[in-house]
């Protein structure tokens, strides 16, 4: 009887221990899960948004059917072969146009861009206050070319860029900046600073662009130093985010003329077709610009009649 009694106790103890171990493991897993969940909140939101963007991508691809349909198929094939990016809807472009953001991009504690535009902090690294950049740096082409830390501050957007000391634009910052007339004016002055650097001038009423007197040397510098192509993408996105669409679209039109028609900036052609035109958020206006590009390619690159 004693042996049976101790055998029963042993079995009960063993089962109890197993249950306790199981509960401990469950608790540990719950802790890990909770920690992981907290750490990955932003990632989960980001993933959900990417899935949403994939759905929108399919819809946008339907809308972005080549405008060349009204021309013969041979011309369309030639354009697609030369500039496939004209008809592509890259996910990064869709996310930008649809203002898809995660909570990671709206941290109320991050205010560096607002502080910079208000003149409270300098750009980093080795930068200056915004008012000094807009006045003292203008025309200093060597500095503007070789210094790589100011462009992310003058034209902030949600993408980190190459300067890890700059802060990606937060949603609450964008709301503050674009509703503040002084900040918008500083952005436009920054735009004129870079236009002068590129050999271009801005007319504000009506909005339009033209070459500056020293455009030949500045165009040569632009083409020779191709990191400026990326700078232009950043500027265009910033103009769009600040609701300065008219400046953005008219500048793209000017770049199209200089690239495809006048062929003074012919090396910009792929950046225009693959990136610049896709920063236009309004679908109808973007498709209209794509039509214009198609016509320019047929007439001036393929040298064919429409």
From TrEMBL:
UniProt keyword list: Signal
Signal peptide per UniProt: 1-16
A GO term from the CC aspect: membrane
GO terms, molecular function: opioid growth factor receptor activity
Domain of life of the organism encoding this protein: Eukaryota
Segments forming domain Opioid growth factor receptor (OGFr) conserved: 109-292
Family: Belongs to the opioid growth factor receptor family.
UniProt-recorded name of the protein: Opioid growth factor receptor (OGFr) conserved domain-containing protein
High-level lineage: Eukaryota, Metazoa, Spiralia, Gnathifera, Rotifera
């Amino acid at each position: 009887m004693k042996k049976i009694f101790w055998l029963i106790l042993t079995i009960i103890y063993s089962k109890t221990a197993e249950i306790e171990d199981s509960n401990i493991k469950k608790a540990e897993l719950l802790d890990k899960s909770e920690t992981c969940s907290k750490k990955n909140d932003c990632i989960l939101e980001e993933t959900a948004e990417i899935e949403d963007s994939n759905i929108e991508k399919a819809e946008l691809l339907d809308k972005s059917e080549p405008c060349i349909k009204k021309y013969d198929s041979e011309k369309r094939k030639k354009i697609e072969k030369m500039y496939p990016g004209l008809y592509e809807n890259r996910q990064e472009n869709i996310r930008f146009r649809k203002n898809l953001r995660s909570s990671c991009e709206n941290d109320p504690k991050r205010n560096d861009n607002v502080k910079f535009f208000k003149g409270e902090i300098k750009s980093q690294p080795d930068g200056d206050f915004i008012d000094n950049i807009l006045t003292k740096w203008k025309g200093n082409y060597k500095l503007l070319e070789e210094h790589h830390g100011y462009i992310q501050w003058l034209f902030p957007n949600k993408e980190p860029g190459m300067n890890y000391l700059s802060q990606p634009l937060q949603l609450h910052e964008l709301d503050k900046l674009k509703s503040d007339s002084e900040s918008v004016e500083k952005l436009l002055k920054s735009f004129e600073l870079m236009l002068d650097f590129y050999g271009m001038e801005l007319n504000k009423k009506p909005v339009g662009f033209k070459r500056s007197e020293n455009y030949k040397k500045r165009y040569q510098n632009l083409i020779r130093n191709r990191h400026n192509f990326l700078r232009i993408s950043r500027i265009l996105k910033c103009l769009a985010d600040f609701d300065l669409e008219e400046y953005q679209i008219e500048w793209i039109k000017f770049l199209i003329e200089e690239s495809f028609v006048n062929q003074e900036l012919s090396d910009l052609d792929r950046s225009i077709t693959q990136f610049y035109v896709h920063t236009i958020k309004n679908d109808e206006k973007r498709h209209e610009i794509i039509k214009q590009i198609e016509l320019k390619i047929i007439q001036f690159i393929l040298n064919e009649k429409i």
